[in-house]
Amino acid sequence: MTHDDVLEHVEEIVAESGLLLVDTNLFQAGRRRILRVLVDKVGRVGLDECAVVSRTIANAIETLDLIGGAYTLEVSSPGLGRQLSTENDWIRCVGRKLEVKTESEEFVSVLSSYAEGLLTFEDGKVTDSGSVLSAREEI
């Protein structure tokens, strides 16, 4: 199986679990391969949900022989300092306080909704997601 086959199966499993795939990476670290999967959901993903997805991914890898040899599977939620930029980032961050920088301004506000590329904030600001230069979740 190829790298893309592994990632495709991971995407399917995460989607079927009702979670959002934030990032996935399969890479070599010494003799061992590492499959790192970041998942989240609106609200927040819990440890139990990460564990269920991890077991499901591990079972698929073993059953379908997706990764030959030794590997380490890491399933977790993304950290607060992670740069936000994808549609899944905006969806999962609804209701969370974000620090946002655009070409014209910098602000901190709670993201109240995301639809059709538009970010709407609690304070009434509306920003096109394409105009965001940087955004991070604020504590």
Features:
139 residues, alpha+beta, GMP Synthetase, Chain A, domain 3, SH3 type barrels, 2 domains, 5-stranded antiparallel β-sheet, 3-stranded mixed β-sheet, 3 helices, 8 strands, 27% helix
Descriptive report:
The chain has 139 residues and is of the alpha+beta class. The protein folds into 2 domains: 3-76, RimP-like superfamily, N-terminal (GMP Synthetase, Chain A, domain 3, 2-Layer Sandwich); 87-137, SH3 type barrels (Roll), CATH 2.30.30. Helix content is 27%, strand content 39%. It has 3 helices and 8 strands, in the order H-E-E-H-E-H-E-E-E-E-E. A 5-stranded antiparallel sheet has the order 7-6-5-4-8, with no helix packed on it. Strand 4 (97-102) and strand 5 form a beta hairpin. It is elongated and about 50 Å long. The mean pLDDT is 92.
CA(first)-CA(last) distance? 41 Å
Oligomer: single chain
Mean pLDDT: 92
CATH topology category name of the largest domain:
GMP Synthetase, Chain A, domain 3
- Coarse morphology: elongated
Strand order in the largest sheet: 7-6-5-4-8
* β-strand number: 8
Which class of secondary structure composition applies to the elements?
alpha+beta
Can you identify the CATH class of the largest domain?
Answer: Alpha Beta
Name of the CATH superfamily of the largest domain: RimP-like superfamily, N-terminal
The amount of helix comes to 25-40%
Give the strand content: 35-45%
Total domains: 2
Uncertain runs: none
